[in-house]
Amino acid sequence: MRVPPGSILVLLLNCELCGSSIRGDVQVVNIDGGVFRVCKGCSKFGTAARVPKPVARPQSSSSAVGFVPRTSNVSIKSRAPSPGGPSSNFYDDEEMVLREDYSKVIKNARELLGIKQDELGMKINEKPSVISHLEAGSIKPTDALARKLEHFLKIELFVPAEDEITSTSDS
Predict the structure, then answer these.
(1) What does the H/E/C string look like for 54-98?
(2) Which residues contact 150 (CB under 8 A, 6 or more apart)?
(3) Cβ distance 99 to 158 under 8 Å?
(4) Cα gap 63→52, rounded to integer Å
(5) Residue 76 to residues 6, 79, 80, 93: CA-CA distances in angstroms?
(6) Cα Rg of the chain, angstroms
(7) pLDDT single digits (tens) 101-139
(8) Distance from CA of residue 116 to its chain's centroid?
């Protein structure tokens, strides 16, 4: 909207609390952490808030929104994800695999400690249904979950691959 020179532009604002047209000065107040433009009557419900005046800055290509200049050439080395996905092995020196009888080992260790599935779940911050499924063998634990179980139950769920191969071929 273009205003012809010499004209007066009048903006009509409504109070953000009561909705009435604001006559006179607009009061900017802080009410419960929010900043509102209100009429003089509603200004008593809050405390005066400071509104910073916008500062004109020259626009350059480096001041684009979301641009963060790189300050160093430091690179973060991360291990490439293995083809097995998030529950794959994380040992670099030797190939470790989840033992085939993991469900029996988990259940026996829990029973030896004399705790219920829901108690084990609470201790390792997992749902009791996860413990139930693990003991039934219907799901395999992720590396992180297996480590929590190994630590709490004092068992070994990951064994070297060659040990697992020989133990399955002996059966």
Answers:
(1) CCCCCCCHHHCCCCCCCCCCCCCCCCCCCCCCCCCCCCCCCCEEE
(2) 156, 157, 158
(3) yes
(4) 20
(5) 61, 10, 12, 22
(6) 33
(7) 999 999 999 999 999 999 999 999 999 999 999 999 999
(8) 30
Which two three-digit tokens encode residue 97? 């695999």
What does the domain layout of the chain look like in residue ranges? Answer: 8-50, 96-170
3-state secondary structure of 36: strand
Exposed/middle/buried for residue 120 (C-beta within 10 Å: 0-12, 13-18, 19+): buried
Q: Residue 151 is encoded by which pair of tokens?
A: 């630590």
96-170 fold: 434 Repressor (Amino-terminal Domain) (1.10.260)
Query: What are 11-39's pLDDT values in tens digits?
Result: 678 888 888 888 888 889 888 878 888 88
**pLDDT score for 74:** 36
Among the listed ranges 60-74, 97-111, 145-159, which one has the minimum average pLDDT value? 60-74
